[in-house]
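Aim 2, interim progress. The first record below pairs a target sequence with its structure tokens.
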Amino acid sequence: MHSLLMFSAGQLAHEDPSEPSYNYLELHHRQQALVALRHSLSTTGVGDNADALLGASALLAFHSCATFDDDNPDFSSEHYLILMNGISMLLFDPFYPF
């Protein structure tokens, strides 16, 4: 849920750059999405949540690409690569219910 809210807040921030609360909400929901993803993976594993975990991971990875910072490419690419590694781990999990 937080990954979708992150995207929504990011779109609102893009459409109305004069409103600083949208940027705050985008970062807040990104942080909450990362915390929830990490918690879900560490406590329950993939199991029945495979589709939701894959969707959240894909949205977070796409967000890292969409917010790429030309002034600091190492920071943005590092987040993207970590998230893509997580997606590949989910896809190649032997318990992923295809």
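The second target in this work package is listed in the same format:
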Amino acid sequence: MSVPSSTFHESSLHKPIRDLGLQIEGTQLEPVLQHFQQELRDQGIQKLHPRFYLSTEWGVPYDTVAIAIPFYLARPDLTDLHAQRSGYVEGTTPAEILRYLRHEMGHVVNYAYRLYEDEDWIKLFGSMTQPYLEEYRPIPFSRRYVVHLPGWYAQKHPDEDWAETFAVWMTPSRDWRGEYAERPTALAKLDYCDRTVQRIKDLEPRVSSAELDEDVAQINYTIEHFYGQPPGSIEQLAATLDGALKAIFEDEGRPEGATSAIRKPGGALLRKLQRQLMADIYRWTGHFPEHTRQLVRHLAERADQLQQVYPENREQEMAVAITALVAALATNHVHRGSYTS
């Protein structure tokens, strides 16, 4: 298998995505999908055959068996570009891609057999007619849900609760009975999943549509357009955050303490930590990576304007303080809709 160059050519930014010749065959995704299909066979799922295609993000169009995979995962240079432009990649390794595939397969099983119509499914997971809110407010470490993808994703909607439960059930060698033995509600969902798959695995699917949504071969806008869309404006944060920054850093030219260590700009440290904060804050609070990116950029700009610095030999301590601050702000935003109120 030939591996494309890891260097992105800027000329491709202005080509329609459909003209980039992207496909799954012959790429790093192909062996991962082969591995995943073997996992399905190992679980006895023989009659249901999902269709895989490239699109703008992970997903399964409602009432289909088609799994969309982000197009940027098909080429290393596009994966690198996505990391640079968005700061967060959903699936950087084969193991992570498999995690997302197992989740999406949960949607496929749900739609293919219309499990969401089953009375027991509704009792355990809720109604599919519940509003699907992009901005949801998870309860971290809730004992009622399994944990698979970051951000307490099972708490977003009954459909996601099922998909996360299915993904945990499907993960090879995972002792879900032992792991969730002390969480009876989550365990009941897993037991239901186990019973249900055993019941349907030899049945023909009720739904077999493979209609695609935003197939990469049909996307007529450019990569520049894809990344150039404004992420939305962050609220004007209260001036009290200036005090939080000053509690972490020092004013330039006014060193605190006796250390003679070189002083470095606080804004630069915030930018250095940005990518890791985007992933970790999302995992533990449910605060979306794109929001964390905007928040950290705002803090970095304010640190620059306030001329905040720190002793080089205390960088680790500063990083912990920044992480705590961003986590506190993110938690406020998730549960109250605002960073400072």
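Residues 1-5 have pLDDT under 50 and may be disordered. This observation will shape the mutagenesis plan for the next reporting period.
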